[in-house]
Design a protein that fits this description.
It catalyses: glycine + S-adenosyl-L-methionine = sarcosine + S-adenosyl-L-homocysteine + H(+). S-adenosyl-L-methionine binds at residues 23, 32, 42, 66, 87, 118-119, 141. Its EC number is 2.1.1.20. Belongs to the class I-like SAM-binding methyltransferase superfamily. Glycine N-methyltransferase family. By secondary structure, the protein is an alpha/beta fold. It is 30% helix and 26% strand. The protein has a single domain (23-202, 246-289), classed as Rossmann fold. The chain has helices at 3-7, 27-36, 44-56, 71-78, 90-102, 122-129, 156-167, 182-188, 249-259; strands at 61-64, 82-87, 113-116, 135-140, 169-180, 204-213, 216-227, 237-244, 265-270, 273-274, 283-289. It has an 8-stranded mixed sheet, with helices on both faces. The structure holds S-adenosylmethionine. S-adenosylmethionine (SAM) binds next to α4.
């Protein structure tokens, strides 16, 4: 493989200055809804896990910090949660805004707030449209957090963003954040094609490239090829690349604990199950409970 295929950290068409939005060329955003389906295609395991923990902990208000096209947010709105959805990509938000418009006759959707915000400035961004607001829960799911690449080589932006998530929570509030099992992906050089989050009805091929610098895996590029030609519409293949920071479970776990001053309760699940039940999970899901005082 040519080196430049690996070294392009963003899709073509994205300016080198400004918001680091991997969706800015619109390619992935356009296919995303087809790829992950609608809220009804979320897997039952995922729904039971997320909604179960939110309800058992009395959560009513949820900040979806990486709402993308709004699929998870809609699942939560349908379940009666008060949802605020933010994302840094206006190309992705466009689809969420359109979905809200299409649901405008459903009163459940009257209070659904959708705004642009960046994890790097999250509390300040939220303050501009919802002053003095903290949430019962913050979710950053679907392998979203790994979109933040390590520009400085010391994960300082990751640490800042994680502490911003903690700041957005009420005392006792829950943060749900996940990452793929990069430990396994680095070892095998492969990415599981099926998702634990959605039932995708199209064939998906994911080509995995791992960039190793001085013995350390620093970037994983996933080239998605989704063949949507079997849905009766005109033949279509969608190809796009997304790049991720390959979080190792142990390092990410410590970084997350530090973001909560080492005082939060921290549970880790593999594919929504206790870790000892899944030998090699595709995803790790961390649930942090902020201390009550
Ligand atoms: C894989 S998509 C997931 C969206 C949604 N949670 C889902 O499962 O469909 C990741 C999202 O994270 C957003 N994102 C990446 N970096 C961000 C940042 N610094 N601040 C806010 N959102 C960001 C992207 O714009 C993108 O919409």
């Amino acid at each position: 493989m040519a080196a430049d295929q690996v070294f392009h950290s963003r899709s073509l068409g994205i300016p080198s200055e400004g918001v680091k939005d991997q969706y800015a060329d619109g390619k992935a955003a356009k296919t995303w809804n087809k790829f992950i389906g609608d809220s009804n295609q979320r897997t039952q395991n995922y729904k039971d896990f997320l909604i179960g923990l939110l309800k058992n902990n009395g959560c009513k208000t949820v900040l979806d910090a990486a709402c993308g096209t709004g699929i998870d947010s809609m699942m939560l709105v349908n379940e009666g949660f008060k949802v605020v959805s933010v994302d840094a990509s206006d190309k992705m938000l466009k689809h969420a805004l359109k979905a809200r418009w299409e649901k405008r006759k459903n009163p459940k959707y009257d209070d659904w707030v959708i705004e642009e915000a960046n994890w790097e400035t999250l509390p300040q961004d939220i303050e501009t449209f919802l002053p003095d607001t903290q949430f019962d829960a913050v979710i950053c799911l679907g392998n979203s957090f790994a979109h933040l690449l390590d520009e400085y080589g010391d994960q300082r932006m990751q640490k800042l963003c994680l502490s911003n998530f903690a700041k957005c929570l009420k005392p006792g509030g829950l943060l749900f954040i996940d990452h793929r099992n990069y430990d396994a992906m680095i070892n095998t050089g492969a990415t599981p094609g099926h998702s634990i989050y959605y039932n995708c009805k199209y064939p998906v091929d994911i080509k995995t490239s791992v960039l190793v610098v001085r013995g350390r895996a620093e970037l994983v590029a996933l080239d998605y090829c989704i063949d949507t030609s079997n849905d009766g519409s005109k033949q279509e293949k969608s190809e796009f690349r997304l790049c991720y920071y390959p979080h190792k479970l142990s390092t990410f776990t410590s970084m997350l604990d530090e973001a909560f001053d080492n005082r939060a309760r921290h549970h880790i699940y593999g594919d929504f199950q206790p870790l000892d039940k899944v030998p090699v999970p595709a995803f790790y899901i961390h649930v942090m409970q902020k201390t009550k005082n």
